[in-house]
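note to self: dont lose this again. the chain is below, predicted strucutre after it. 217 aa total, dont forget to put it in the shared folder this time
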Amino acid sequence: MIAENLHSITRKLPSGVTLVAVSKFHPVSALQEAYDAGQRDFGENRPQELAAKVPLLPADIRWHFIGHLQTNKLKMVLPYVSLVQSVDSLHLLEAIRAWAVSNNRLIDILLELHLGAEETKHGFTEDEIISICHSERSEESMIRIRGLMGMATNTEDVRVIEEDFIRIEKLFKRIQAMGLRDFDQLSIGMSGDWPLAVKHGATMVRIGTDIFGPREY
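---
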């Protein structure tokens, strides 16, 4: 079933859009099944779960961290991931930078825009992201800002979701126009809304339920 779900989604995705299989809360056996079906990008949001899964699965998996990351958990995440999608504060950004310098490793990140209406969501404001991207243009850094990540408002109202995607797409294009090097990734869209996200420029979609089914808690 997992393989069938994957193939159904990948057939619909335009070329150039990366499917990140959101594997949080799912067992290693489910991830292995997805891997055997050709999936290579997986998203986790708990440091302990990520660190436990990595040694049990093939080494060529590209791990994405997609959840709120506490600075005291960096060593459980940064050695393993190809992309931290959820950098949501200056404190976290600077902690990742310090770890990267200390470990002599370039870390690719996305800046998370506080996109949805919920106050509980993490992320930067648009002005904060613009300021960070301006400062990164000339600064020698072991961090590479690859783009933006956002989560639309949790609602059944398609108009509200589309407004969220339009907003982050505009910000993404504005920053690209600044000439920030390697700024080419827009991670929006999940199981319920990914076709709409693709319409508005998503280069990555994060899909869990439509691949693996309901989560195991």
